[in-house]
Amino acid sequence: MMALGMGNGAVFQLVPQHFRKEIGMVTGIVGAAGGIGGFFLPNILGSLKQVTGSYAIGFISFSCIALLAFVLVLAAGYYWRKSYGTESSHADV
Question: Which residue ranges traverse the bilayer (predicted)?
Answer without folding.
Answer: 23-45, 57-80
